[in-house]
Amino acid sequence: MIRGLSRMLPLALVVATIAAFGVACKSVPPAPDKPAPAAPAFDSSTKPAEKVDESSGFKEAAPTAESFGETPSTTADKLNTQGVLKPIYFDFDRADLRQDADQTLSANAARMRESGSLSVRIEGHCDERGTIEYNLALGDRRARAAKDQMVALGIPAARLRTISYGKERPVDPGHNESAWALNRRAEFIFIAE
Predict the structure, then answer these.
(1) Continuous segment of H or E residues that includes residue 178
(2) How many CA atoms lie within 13 A of 22 on its CB side?
(3) Domain residue spans in the chain?
(4) What integer pLDDT is reported at residue 93 of this predicted model?
(5) 28, burial (CB in 10 Å: exposed 0-12, middle 13-18, buried 19+)
């Protein structure tokens, strides 16, 4: 009799485990029907959601003014369309300002003084070589170097914001030195506060 029980005990444990598992996985009955909340009214001024390919990491990210808490401004848009602020360029794998950047930064600072209360977002960019993480950090150092120089030229730090796009927004999609030289840059974009 003991042998019979010892043979049936493991089988009984397996059956009990399966039964307990089945009870634990049983779905909860649906809640009583409640009226669905009313859909928000369509606002034609609202931009549709952008589609992002999640398999490509940062590549498809396209931040907008709203993602930075910026207020759209027709004056800022007009100045940006006119290309009032010029980009500066960097040497390969460097974040220090080149001599040719001094004149451009001085001109950008003068244009900022003329623009009144508009702020500027300084975007750091890199060429395609290197990892995403490395280039995001390098782009950040480039944007900060440009910001530091603008502050030294008398622009209040509160009017300057920085962001790095790394290698994700090339201005030239080529795969050669001339394209890479154009992509190693800091761009200056007017924004409204």
Answers:
(1) helix 177-183
(2) 6
(3) 60-191
(4) 96
(5) exposed
Q: Which of 6-10, 16-20, 156-160 has the highest average model confidence (pLDDT)?
A: 156-160
Which tokens hold the place of 125?
Answer: 């960019």
Residues 6+ apart with CB under 8 A from 171: 125, 182, 183, 185
CA distances from 23 to 19, 20, 113, 130 (A): 6, 5, 71, 53
Name the amino acid, one letter, at 9: L
Q: Specify the range with the lowest mean pLDDT, choosing from 12-16, 48-52, 120-124.
A: 48-52
Q: Tell me the pLDDT tens digit for each residue of 133-142.
A: 999 999 999 9
Full DSSP string of 5-34: HHHHHHHHHHHHHHHHHHHHTPPPPPPPP-
What is 60-191's CATH topology? 60s Ribosomal Protein L30; Chain: A; (3.30.1330)
Label residue 116 left, alpha or beta by phi (over 0 means left) and psi (-120 to 50 means alpha): left
DSSP-derived pairing of the beta strands 88-89 and 119-125: unpaired
Hey, what's the torsion of the CAs at 39, 43, 46, 51, to 10 degrees?
40
